[in-house]
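Running this now, will post back.
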Amino acid sequence: MLRRLLLLLLSLGACSAAAQTPEEKGLAIATAAERRDDGFGDFTANMEMILKNRHAEESRRKLRVLEREVPADGDKGLTLFDEPADVKGTALLTFSHKVNDDDQWLYLPALKRVKRISSANKSGSFMGSEFSYEDIGSQEIDKYRYKYLRDEPCDGKPCFVIERYPVSPNSGYTRQVVWLDQAHYRTWKVEYYDRKQSLLKTLTFNGYQQYLGKHWRAAELFMQNHQSGKSTLLKWSDYKFRVGLKDADFNEASLKRQR
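Update: finished.
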């Protein structure tokens, strides 16, 4: 309760308070960013995943994404692969949580079985992409500790630069450096550092559009792996909000049913 009270106080315009420590200011910025996306309800969207290896050879996949907001906890998400034929029917179900590790299940149609993703495998690659299971889960506030680093421009805009440190011992990262614009608290770049403190990946966001007069979503997310030379581009389209998704759309049976 005390932590939630602190989060509330810090988010009520406390970002500019000179008395804040770097840790308090980092937490306040992250909290303000999360509060601005509260209330989206649910949405569906289409996604194209473009994977590129170190020789610039491409492979493409088409997916559908369903997400439902759960105010008292994390969100629920379902990702369904439609193309190409060798991955068609593959589905990932994610229950995000405020503090604990997310629950995730992967349905593999070739095996006709649902596989639970263990917490110890959160850093594993999601379907051969440069996104890990951890990356595609929701980024809940309590899953990190924070520190404000500096102000500097990003994508031509005044931005905050904060550092966040995963709380979970199963995280594949020691720290992440995040750039958010000061006008709307949208994330523009994230640098991921591995367990050896080396820069592993950089994620950049482009083409933000606003929905329902409040909620911003990026049209493109590009993840570059600096150590392997591989990259993955996610291109989002056809966002539809408040379509009436229910809990029944997010359970293990739905992994097989919504093909």
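The helical segments are 2-11, 22-35, 133-136, 252-257. More later if anyone needs it.
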